[in-house]
Amino acid sequence: MGTTxxxxxxxxxxxxxxxxxxxxxxxxxxxVGGLGDRGVVAACSYETRRFGVHSGMSMKVARRLCxxxxxxxxxxxxxMKFSDNVTxxxxxxxxxxxxxxxxxxxxxxxxxxxxxxxxxxxSELRQRIxxxxxxxxxxxxxxxxxxxxxxxxxxxxxxxxxIDLGYEREFLAPLSIRKLPSVGEKTYxxxxxxxxxxxxxxxxxxxxxxxxxxxxxxxxxxxxxxxLDNPPLVPFHERKSISSERTYGKDTIDxxxxxxxxxxxxxxxxxxxxxxxxxxxxxxxxxxxxxxQTYTKQKRIPYTSADHILIPLVRELFHTLYQRRMLIRxxxxxxxxxxxxxxxxxxxxxSDKRLDLYQAMDxxxxxxxxxxxxxxxxxGARTIGRGGNPFDxxxxxxxxxxxx
Length: 404
Fold this sequence. Notes:
The chain is α+β, with helices and mostly antiparallel strands. The chain is about 40% helix and about 20% strand. A five-stranded mixed sheet has the order 5-6-1-7-8. Strands 9, 10, 11, 12 and 13 form a five-stranded antiparallel sheet that branches.
């Protein structure tokens, strides 16, 4: 029995959410993202596309290209609620599904042709989402995830497309190689230099040539160009690391400000570990200077989720890393090598008082929010936070901030 994979994508998701909240924004050019000079466009309406605006670009450039656009900062919590509404409809309608991002879903409908008809079922599911949530959504249907995702892109906006079995190669052939997942700007530039700009040309290249030029990645691209790649659905996303970054509105060398941000990040991420019953075995700190030179330093440690171990280590790594005495644009903290478990008590260093303190702090945060309680040394960075449990299997909302 062949597979039938459905790919569904909410069109300009953040924009659609804002328009549901305020109908005056309908059919008006709209940008959602950071409001400052260093803000990034998280989503843009189709009315702005003809000016050359796309998600992921600088908000400053986008406002210059489309000065009449309305700019909204947006709210991640609101978008997650809308996303959860769509997720629940899909969850109760299909046997197996993958939530690839806050606005993107895959579902395995294999075998449903016997009883209902996959295309008909997908069409009715799409109509139900439109009716119950008011959010425009497009879908593509084919034998694998890659072709279905490309078909969804061709069906947009607010439409649907099915690629019949055996016609995958023919459907892909006239399209640009940029339409293939995993072909980014760098790969596109290399292929263009080879004279390959359409998938048809890529289909005519020998597999050995792609493997010679691009290695294993070349084989993946070649397989996808022929509609043969079959990546599996992933119903649950297991996080291998968690991180937090902050880009300053103005480059700074203020050490108090930098340390305050790093302490707030380290403390919040440690709380996320304890809430998810996880521990980290590797800590890294990242800084980006005003000339965009980026440096990271990491250190392996015994597995832990304790603030009094992680915060001093983050400070130590930062002071070791910061050597250029140049203005800093961005700082970040990352915890990786994550495993399940609880903080192991040190018989010589820890006390009942310290353990009770952690439990009391986490209890307050669980009830009133992760920003309800923080160290005095982190008070200058109140906006540090995630707004959700990173270990609940859901993809990070930042995955929606891709070029649409």
